[in-house]
Write a structure and sequence with these properties.
The chain is an alpha/beta fold. It folds into two domains: 54 residues, no CATH class; 333 residues, TIM Barrel, CATH 3.20.20.80. 36% of the residues lie in helices and 20% in strands. The protein is built from 14 helices and 15 strands. An eight-stranded parallel barrel has the order 6-7-8-9-10-11-13-14, surrounded by six helices. Strands 2-5-4 form a three-stranded antiparallel sheet, with no helix packed on it. Strands 1-3 form a two-stranded parallel ribbon. The protein is globular, with a radius of gyration of 22 Å. Bound molecules: ligand G3I. Keywords: Carbohydrate metabolism, Glycosidase, Hydrolase, Polysaccharide degradation, Secreted, Signal, Xylan degradation. Its EC number is 3.2.1.8. Its main location: secreted.
Length: 397
Protein backbone atom coordinates (compact mmCIF):
# COMPACT_ATOMS: atom_id res chain seq x y z
CA UNK A 1 0.00 0.00 0.00
CA UNK A 2 2.80 2.37 0.96
CA UNK A 3 4.62 1.47 -2.27
CA UNK A 4 1.48 2.18 -4.28
CA UNK A 5 1.16 5.61 -2.65
CA UNK A 6 4.79 6.35 -3.48
CA UNK A 7 4.25 5.24 -7.07
CA UNK A 8 1.16 7.43 -7.40
CA UNK A 9 3.07 10.39 -5.99
CA UNK A 10 5.86 9.76 -8.51
CA UNK A 11 3.40 9.54 -11.41
CA UNK A 12 1.81 12.80 -10.29
CA UNK A 13 5.20 14.51 -10.26
CA UNK A 14 6.07 13.10 -13.68
CA UNK A 15 2.77 14.10 -15.25
CA UNK A 16 3.14 17.61 -13.79
CA UNK A 17 5.88 18.27 -16.33
CA UNK A 18 5.35 18.76 -20.05
CA UNK A 19 7.08 16.46 -22.49
CA UNK A 20 9.57 17.60 -25.14
CA UNK A 21 7.74 19.88 -27.63
CA UNK A 22 4.72 19.93 -25.30
CA UNK A 23 3.00 23.16 -24.23
CA UNK A 24 4.22 24.61 -20.93
CA UNK A 25 2.48 27.96 -20.69
CA UNK A 26 0.64 30.77 -22.43
CA UNK A 27 -2.56 32.74 -22.06
CA UNK A 28 -5.37 30.38 -21.07
CA UNK A 29 -3.00 27.45 -20.43
CA UNK A 30 -3.78 25.58 -17.21
CA UNK A 31 -1.42 22.60 -17.64
CA UNK A 32 2.15 22.03 -16.46
CA UNK A 33 4.55 24.95 -16.61
CA UNK A 34 7.79 23.02 -16.27
CA UNK A 35 9.46 20.62 -18.69
CA UNK A 36 11.00 17.18 -18.48
CA UNK A 37 14.78 17.04 -18.00
CA UNK A 38 16.85 18.36 -20.88
CA UNK A 39 14.16 20.83 -21.99
CA UNK A 40 13.50 24.49 -21.33
CA UNK A 41 10.11 26.23 -21.38
CA UNK A 42 10.36 28.87 -24.10
CA UNK A 43 7.77 31.57 -24.81
CA UNK A 44 7.09 31.44 -28.55
CA UNK A 45 4.07 33.73 -28.46
CA UNK A 46 1.71 34.96 -25.72
CA UNK A 47 -0.51 31.92 -26.21
CA UNK A 48 2.11 29.25 -26.53
CA UNK A 49 5.16 28.37 -24.44
CA UNK A 50 6.84 25.18 -25.59
CA UNK A 51 9.29 22.67 -24.08
CA UNK A 52 12.31 22.73 -26.37
CA UNK A 53 15.54 20.77 -26.04
CA UNK A 54 17.87 22.90 -23.92
CA UNK A 55 20.58 22.67 -26.58
CA UNK A 56 18.31 24.59 -28.95
CA UNK A 57 17.65 27.46 -26.55
CA UNK A 58 20.08 30.09 -25.44
CA UNK A 59 18.51 30.84 -22.10
CA UNK A 60 16.95 29.16 -19.12
CA UNK A 61 13.27 28.28 -18.74
CA UNK A 62 10.94 31.08 -19.75
CA UNK A 63 13.47 32.80 -21.97
CA UNK A 64 12.12 34.47 -25.08
CA UNK A 65 15.22 33.54 -27.04
CA UNK A 66 15.10 30.76 -29.60
CA UNK A 67 18.18 31.75 -31.58
CA UNK A 68 21.53 30.89 -30.05
CA UNK A 69 24.01 33.71 -30.50
CA UNK A 70 26.17 31.53 -32.72
CA UNK A 71 23.56 31.34 -35.46
CA UNK A 72 24.07 33.55 -38.52
CA UNK A 73 22.04 36.75 -38.81
CA UNK A 74 20.98 38.96 -41.69
CA UNK A 75 23.41 41.64 -42.81
CA UNK A 76 21.42 43.59 -45.41
CA UNK A 77 20.93 47.26 -44.61
CA UNK A 78 18.14 47.71 -47.19
CA UNK A 79 14.50 48.00 -46.06
CA UNK A 80 11.89 45.60 -47.42
CA UNK A 81 9.01 47.98 -48.19
CA UNK A 82 11.26 50.68 -49.58
CA UNK A 83 12.88 48.20 -51.93
CA UNK A 84 9.55 46.57 -52.89
CA UNK A 85 8.05 49.94 -53.82
CA UNK A 86 11.21 50.81 -55.70
CA UNK A 87 10.67 47.88 -58.07
CA UNK A 88 7.02 48.78 -58.66
CA UNK A 89 5.22 46.69 -56.06
CA UNK A 90 2.53 48.35 -53.96
CA UNK A 91 3.83 47.18 -50.62
CA UNK A 92 5.78 44.75 -48.50
CA UNK A 93 3.65 44.01 -45.44
CA UNK A 94 3.13 41.95 -42.32
CA UNK A 95 0.27 40.40 -40.41
CA UNK A 96 -0.10 41.49 -36.82
CA UNK A 97 -2.46 40.79 -33.94
CA UNK A 98 -3.86 42.88 -31.12
CA UNK A 99 -2.22 41.02 -28.19
CA UNK A 100 1.18 41.83 -29.71
CA UNK A 101 0.76 45.58 -29.80
CA UNK A 102 1.59 46.34 -26.16
CA UNK A 103 5.07 45.00 -26.96
CA UNK A 104 6.77 48.29 -27.76
CA UNK A 105 9.88 46.70 -29.27
CA UNK A 106 7.56 44.75 -31.58
CA UNK A 107 5.42 47.71 -32.50
CA UNK A 108 8.37 49.98 -33.21
CA UNK A 109 9.46 47.69 -36.04
CA UNK A 110 5.88 47.16 -37.27
CA UNK A 111 5.37 50.93 -37.45
CA UNK A 112 8.49 51.39 -39.56
CA UNK A 113 7.22 52.01 -43.08
CA UNK A 114 10.66 51.32 -44.46
CA UNK A 115 9.99 47.73 -43.53
CA UNK A 116 6.20 47.48 -43.82
CA UNK A 117 3.82 49.43 -46.04
CA UNK A 118 0.84 47.19 -45.36
CA UNK A 119 -0.73 45.37 -42.42
CA UNK A 120 -3.15 42.45 -42.21
CA UNK A 121 -5.01 41.90 -38.92
CA UNK A 122 -4.34 38.24 -38.10
CA UNK A 123 -7.55 37.65 -36.16
CA UNK A 124 -9.52 40.73 -35.20
CA UNK A 125 -11.59 41.19 -38.37
CA UNK A 126 -12.71 37.54 -38.49
CA UNK A 127 -16.36 36.58 -38.00
CA UNK A 128 -15.99 35.39 -34.39
CA UNK A 129 -14.38 38.71 -33.49
CA UNK A 130 -16.72 40.99 -35.41
CA UNK A 131 -20.20 39.42 -35.13
CA UNK A 132 -20.08 37.08 -32.12
CA UNK A 133 -23.86 37.15 -31.85
CA UNK A 134 -26.21 37.57 -34.76
CA UNK A 135 -26.53 41.24 -35.63
CA UNK A 136 -24.20 42.34 -32.80
CA UNK A 137 -21.05 43.79 -34.32
CA UNK A 138 -17.85 44.57 -32.43
CA UNK A 139 -15.08 46.33 -34.27
CA UNK A 140 -12.79 47.37 -31.43
CA UNK A 141 -9.98 44.93 -32.27
CA UNK A 142 -10.10 45.61 -36.00
CA UNK A 143 -10.33 49.34 -35.37
CA UNK A 144 -7.21 49.26 -33.23
CA UNK A 145 -5.21 47.84 -36.11
CA UNK A 146 -6.89 50.03 -38.74
CA UNK A 147 -6.10 53.09 -36.60
CA UNK A 148 -2.49 52.02 -36.24
CA UNK A 149 -2.17 51.50 -39.99
CA UNK A 150 -3.78 54.86 -40.70
CA UNK A 151 -1.47 56.63 -38.26
CA UNK A 152 1.51 55.02 -39.95
CA UNK A 153 0.23 55.57 -43.50
CA UNK A 154 0.15 51.81 -44.13
CA UNK A 155 -2.30 49.93 -46.37
CA UNK A 156 -4.67 47.39 -44.82
CA UNK A 157 -5.76 44.02 -46.08
CA UNK A 158 -9.15 43.17 -44.57
CA UNK A 159 -9.13 39.55 -43.41
CA UNK A 160 -11.74 38.07 -43.81
CA UNK A 161 -15.48 37.97 -44.57
CA UNK A 162 -16.40 34.30 -45.15
CA UNK A 163 -14.25 31.44 -43.83
CA UNK A 164 -15.12 28.04 -42.39
CA UNK A 165 -12.86 28.66 -39.37
CA UNK A 166 -13.14 31.03 -36.40
CA UNK A 167 -16.87 31.27 -36.84
CA UNK A 168 -19.07 32.03 -33.86
CA UNK A 169 -21.12 28.99 -32.88
CA UNK A 170 -24.36 30.61 -33.99
CA UNK A 171 -23.03 30.45 -37.57
CA UNK A 172 -20.92 27.27 -37.43
CA UNK A 173 -23.63 25.22 -35.74
CA UNK A 174 -26.65 26.99 -37.17
CA UNK A 175 -29.25 25.29 -39.32
CA UNK A 176 -30.42 27.73 -41.94
CA UNK A 177 -32.50 27.80 -45.09
CA UNK A 178 -30.68 29.07 -48.17
CA UNK A 179 -32.59 32.34 -47.93
CA UNK A 180 -31.69 32.80 -44.25
CA UNK A 181 -27.98 32.15 -44.78
CA UNK A 182 -27.92 34.43 -47.81
CA UNK A 183 -29.22 37.26 -45.65
CA UNK A 184 -26.74 36.41 -42.89
CA UNK A 185 -23.77 36.53 -45.31
CA UNK A 186 -25.01 39.73 -46.93
CA UNK A 187 -25.45 41.37 -43.55
CA UNK A 188 -22.07 40.19 -42.22
CA UNK A 189 -20.01 41.07 -45.30
CA UNK A 190 -21.97 44.24 -45.97
CA UNK A 191 -21.66 45.55 -42.41
CA UNK A 192 -18.01 44.52 -41.99
CA UNK A 193 -16.83 45.91 -45.32
CA UNK A 194 -18.85 49.10 -45.03
CA UNK A 195 -17.47 49.73 -41.52
CA UNK A 196 -14.02 49.98 -43.09
CA UNK A 197 -15.17 51.47 -46.43
CA UNK A 198 -12.86 54.26 -47.48
CA UNK A 199 -10.42 53.01 -44.89
CA UNK A 200 -9.83 49.77 -46.73
CA UNK A 201 -10.55 50.93 -50.27
CA UNK A 202 -7.86 53.52 -49.86
CA UNK A 203 -6.24 50.79 -47.89
CA UNK A 204 -6.55 48.35 -50.61
CA UNK A 205 -8.16 44.91 -50.38
CA UNK A 206 -10.44 42.44 -48.66
CA UNK A 207 -10.05 38.68 -48.44
CA UNK A 208 -13.77 38.23 -49.03
CA UNK A 209 -13.60 34.45 -49.37
CA UNK A 210 -10.96 32.50 -47.45
CA UNK A 211 -9.96 28.87 -48.09
CA UNK A 212 -13.05 27.59 -49.95
CA UNK A 213 -11.44 24.40 -51.27
CA UNK A 214 -10.14 21.09 -49.96
CA UNK A 215 -6.66 20.08 -51.12
CA UNK A 216 -8.17 17.75 -53.75
CA UNK A 217 -9.97 20.70 -55.34
CA UNK A 218 -13.43 19.79 -54.06
CA UNK A 219 -15.45 22.36 -52.18
CA UNK A 220 -14.90 22.41 -48.45
CA UNK A 221 -17.81 21.02 -46.47
CA UNK A 222 -18.97 23.83 -44.20
CA UNK A 223 -22.16 25.64 -43.33
CA UNK A 224 -21.80 27.91 -46.35
CA UNK A 225 -21.26 25.29 -49.07
CA UNK A 226 -23.56 22.75 -47.45
CA UNK A 227 -26.42 25.25 -47.34
CA UNK A 228 -25.88 27.31 -50.48
CA UNK A 229 -23.57 25.33 -52.76
CA UNK A 230 -21.09 27.47 -54.69
CA UNK A 231 -23.45 30.43 -54.63
CA UNK A 232 -22.10 31.61 -51.26
CA UNK A 233 -19.11 32.98 -53.19
CA UNK A 234 -20.98 35.44 -55.44
CA UNK A 235 -23.33 36.33 -52.58
CA UNK A 236 -20.38 37.44 -50.45
CA UNK A 237 -18.49 39.14 -53.28
CA UNK A 238 -21.54 41.12 -54.39
CA UNK A 239 -22.26 42.21 -50.82
CA UNK A 240 -18.65 43.35 -50.41
CA UNK A 241 -18.71 45.26 -53.71
CA UNK A 242 -21.91 47.04 -52.74
CA UNK A 243 -20.44 47.95 -49.35
CA UNK A 244 -17.19 49.39 -50.70
CA UNK A 245 -17.10 49.73 -54.49
CA UNK A 246 -13.42 50.70 -54.54
CA UNK A 247 -11.96 47.87 -52.46
CA UNK A 248 -10.15 45.10 -54.30
CA UNK A 249 -12.02 41.86 -53.66
CA UNK A 250 -9.93 38.73 -53.23
CA UNK A 251 -10.31 35.00 -52.81
CA UNK A 252 -7.47 33.69 -50.64
CA UNK A 253 -6.22 30.12 -50.17
CA UNK A 254 -3.21 27.88 -49.49
CA UNK A 255 -1.81 24.98 -51.54
CA UNK A 256 -2.71 26.81 -54.73
CA UNK A 257 0.94 27.87 -55.16
CA UNK A 258 1.77 24.86 -57.33
CA UNK A 259 0.07 22.95 -60.14
CA UNK A 260 -2.52 20.55 -58.82
CA UNK A 261 -6.24 20.05 -58.31
CA UNK A 262 -6.63 22.87 -55.82
CA UNK A 263 -4.98 25.47 -58.09
CA UNK A 264 -7.07 24.15 -60.97
CA UNK A 265 -10.25 24.48 -58.92
CA UNK A 266 -9.37 28.07 -58.00
CA UNK A 267 -8.66 28.95 -61.65
CA UNK A 268 -11.94 27.39 -62.69
CA UNK A 269 -13.80 29.37 -60.02
CA UNK A 270 -12.21 32.64 -61.18
CA UNK A 271 -13.18 31.88 -64.79
CA UNK A 272 -16.76 31.14 -63.76
CA UNK A 273 -17.03 34.32 -61.69
CA UNK A 274 -15.55 36.44 -64.49
CA UNK A 275 -17.82 34.92 -67.12
CA UNK A 276 -20.89 35.67 -65.00
CA UNK A 277 -19.80 39.23 -64.13
CA UNK A 278 -19.38 38.54 -60.42
CA UNK A 279 -16.94 41.07 -58.97
CA UNK A 280 -13.57 39.52 -58.18
CA UNK A 281 -10.28 41.38 -58.45
CA UNK A 282 -7.60 39.17 -57.03
CA UNK A 283 -6.35 35.82 -55.84
CA UNK A 284 -4.33 35.62 -52.63
CA UNK A 285 -1.75 32.87 -52.46
CA UNK A 286 -1.03 32.35 -48.78
CA UNK A 287 2.42 30.68 -49.13
CA UNK A 288 2.77 28.88 -45.79
CA UNK A 289 5.81 26.89 -46.83
CA UNK A 290 8.35 24.44 -45.39
CA UNK A 291 12.12 24.99 -45.64
CA UNK A 292 13.47 23.10 -48.63
CA UNK A 293 9.99 22.45 -50.03
CA UNK A 294 9.06 25.72 -51.71
CA UNK A 295 7.23 25.05 -54.98
CA UNK A 296 9.34 25.58 -58.06
CA UNK A 297 6.42 26.55 -60.31
CA UNK A 298 5.15 29.47 -58.22
CA UNK A 299 5.98 32.04 -60.90
CA UNK A 300 4.14 30.00 -63.54
CA UNK A 301 1.08 29.68 -61.31
CA UNK A 302 1.09 33.41 -60.58
CA UNK A 303 1.19 34.09 -64.33
CA UNK A 304 -1.67 31.66 -64.95
CA UNK A 305 -3.87 33.44 -62.43
CA UNK A 306 -2.98 36.85 -63.86
CA UNK A 307 -3.93 35.55 -67.32
CA UNK A 308 -7.47 35.15 -65.97
CA UNK A 309 -7.71 38.94 -65.56
CA UNK A 310 -7.11 39.11 -61.81
CA UNK A 311 -4.21 40.45 -59.83
CA UNK A 312 -2.38 38.24 -57.37
CA UNK A 313 -0.70 38.80 -54.02
CA UNK A 314 1.38 36.71 -51.66
CA UNK A 315 -0.73 37.11 -48.58
CA UNK A 316 0.58 35.02 -45.66
CA UNK A 317 4.19 34.07 -46.36
CA UNK A 318 6.20 32.11 -43.81
CA UNK A 319 8.67 29.25 -44.22
CA UNK A 320 8.89 26.90 -41.24
CA UNK A 321 11.49 24.37 -40.22
CA UNK A 322 11.82 21.51 -37.77
CA UNK A 323 13.54 22.92 -34.69
CA UNK A 324 16.23 23.46 -33.62
CA UNK A 325 17.50 26.03 -36.09
CA UNK A 326 20.85 25.25 -37.67
CA UNK A 327 23.15 27.22 -39.96
CA UNK A 328 22.15 24.93 -42.83
CA UNK A 329 18.41 25.33 -42.25
CA UNK A 330 18.73 29.10 -42.02
CA UNK A 331 20.77 29.16 -45.25
CA UNK A 332 18.12 27.09 -47.03
CA UNK A 333 15.39 29.31 -45.60
CA UNK A 334 17.19 32.35 -47.01
CA UNK A 335 17.24 30.73 -50.46
CA UNK A 336 13.57 29.78 -50.12
CA UNK A 337 12.49 33.32 -49.19
CA UNK A 338 14.52 34.67 -52.09
CA UNK A 339 12.85 32.31 -54.56
CA UNK A 340 9.31 33.13 -53.40
CA UNK A 341 9.92 36.87 -53.54
CA UNK A 342 11.64 36.58 -56.92
CA UNK A 343 8.57 34.80 -58.33
CA UNK A 344 6.36 37.74 -57.30
CA UNK A 345 8.90 40.21 -58.62
CA UNK A 346 8.88 38.48 -62.02
CA UNK A 347 5.10 38.78 -62.44
CA UNK A 348 3.82 42.32 -62.98
CA UNK A 349 0.35 41.38 -61.72
CA UNK A 350 1.76 40.26 -58.36
CA UNK A 351 1.09 43.45 -56.46
CA UNK A 352 2.66 42.78 -53.07
CA UNK A 353 3.90 40.43 -50.42
CA UNK A 354 2.69 40.01 -46.84
CA UNK A 355 4.51 37.89 -44.28
CA UNK A 356 2.37 36.15 -41.65
CA UNK A 357 3.88 38.22 -38.85
CA UNK A 358 7.46 39.29 -39.06
CA UNK A 359 8.94 37.77 -35.90
CA UNK A 360 9.24 34.23 -34.56
CA UNK A 361 8.11 35.66 -31.22
CA UNK A 362 4.52 35.83 -32.45
CA UNK A 363 4.37 33.23 -35.21
CA UNK A 364 1.35 30.88 -35.28
CA UNK A 365 3.53 27.93 -36.35
CA UNK A 366 4.69 26.40 -33.02
CA UNK A 367 1.15 26.33 -31.68
CA UNK A 368 -0.11 24.46 -34.72
CA UNK A 369 2.92 22.35 -35.70
CA UNK A 370 4.64 21.21 -32.48
CA UNK A 371 8.40 20.95 -32.93
CA UNK A 372 8.40 23.36 -35.87
CA UNK A 373 8.92 27.10 -36.01
CA UNK A 374 11.51 29.79 -36.81
CA UNK A 375 9.41 30.58 -39.88
CA UNK A 376 9.75 34.37 -39.94
CA UNK A 377 12.49 36.73 -41.19
CA UNK A 378 13.06 38.26 -37.74
CA UNK A 379 13.92 35.98 -34.79
CA UNK A 380 12.17 36.03 -31.42
CA UNK A 381 14.55 38.77 -30.22
CA UNK A 382 13.78 40.96 -33.27
CA UNK A 383 17.15 40.21 -34.86
CA UNK A 384 16.98 39.90 -38.64
CA UNK A 385 17.81 36.43 -39.90
CA UNK A 386 19.47 35.33 -43.16
CA UNK A 387 15.89 35.02 -44.48
CA UNK A 388 15.69 38.82 -44.39
CA UNK A 389 18.65 39.02 -46.76
CA UNK A 390 16.88 36.46 -48.93
CA UNK A 391 13.86 38.77 -49.21
CA UNK A 392 16.05 41.71 -50.23
CA UNK A 393 17.88 39.51 -52.73
CA UNK A 394 14.56 38.31 -54.17
CA UNK A 395 13.44 41.91 -54.63
CA UNK A 396 16.67 43.11 -56.16
CA UNK A 397 18.47 40.26 -57.93
O1 LIG B 1 -8.93 34.51 -28.42
C1 LIG B 1 -8.65 33.28 -27.73
C2 LIG B 1 -8.34 33.54 -26.27
O2 LIG B 1 -9.49 34.07 -25.65
C3 LIG B 1 -7.93 32.23 -25.61
O3 LIG B 1 -7.53 32.49 -24.30
C4 LIG B 1 -6.75 31.59 -26.36
C5 LIG B 1 -6.34 30.26 -25.75
O4 LIG B 1 -5.77 29.41 -26.70
O5 LIG B 1 -7.12 31.40 -27.70
C6 LIG B 1 -7.45 32.62 -28.37
O6 LIG B 1 -7.80 32.30 -29.67
C7 LIG B 1 -6.71 32.03 -30.54
C8 LIG B 1 -6.83 32.95 -31.74
O7 LIG B 1 -5.85 32.63 -32.70
C9 LIG B 1 -6.68 34.42 -31.33
O8 LIG B 1 -5.40 34.69 -30.87
C10 LIG B 1 -6.82 30.58 -31.00
O9 LIG B 1 -6.56 29.70 -29.90
C11 LIG B 1 -5.83 30.30 -32.11
O10 LIG B 1 -6.08 29.01 -32.64
C12 LIG B 1 -6.00 31.32 -33.22
O11 LIG B 1 -5.04 31.03 -34.20
C13 LIG B 1 -5.15 31.77 -35.41
C14 LIG B 1 -5.49 30.82 -36.56
O12 LIG B 1 -5.54 31.57 -37.77
C15 LIG B 1 -6.81 30.12 -36.38
O13 LIG B 1 -7.04 29.28 -37.45
C16 LIG B 1 -3.82 32.43 -35.66
O14 LIG B 1 -3.56 33.38 -34.64
C17 LIG B 1 -3.85 33.11 -37.03
O15 LIG B 1 -2.57 33.60 -37.33
C18 LIG B 1 -4.27 32.10 -38.08
O16 LIG B 1 -4.32 32.74 -39.33
C19 LIG B 1 -4.69 31.92 -40.45
C20 LIG B 1 -5.34 32.83 -41.45
O17 LIG B 1 -6.43 33.53 -40.86
C21 LIG B 1 -5.83 32.06 -42.67
N1 LIG B 1 -4.75 31.29 -43.27
C22 LIG B 1 -4.01 30.44 -42.33
C23 LIG B 1 -3.50 31.25 -41.15
C24 LIG B 1 -2.66 30.41 -40.23
O18 LIG B 1 -3.43 29.38 -39.64
Amino acid sequence: MKNLALLLAFVTVVSAQSQEFGQCGGIGWTGPTTCVAGNSCVQLNPYFFQCLPSSSTSGSGGSTSTAPAALPTGTSTASTNTVAKGIGKLYFGSATDNPELPDTAYETILNNTGFFGQITPGNSMKWDATEPEEGVFTFSGGDQIANLARANGQLIRGHNCVWYNQLPSWVANGVFTAAQLTTIIQNHCGTLVSHYAGEISSSYAWDVINEPFNDDGTWRSDVFFNTLGESFVPIALQAARAADPKAKLYINDYNIEFAGPKATAMMSLIQTLKSTNVPVDGVGLQCHFIVGEVPTDLETILQEFVALDVEVAITELDIRMTLPETDALLAQQKTDYQNVIAACKAVAGCVGITIWDYTDKYSWIPGTFPGQGAACPWDANFIRKPAYDGIIAGLTA
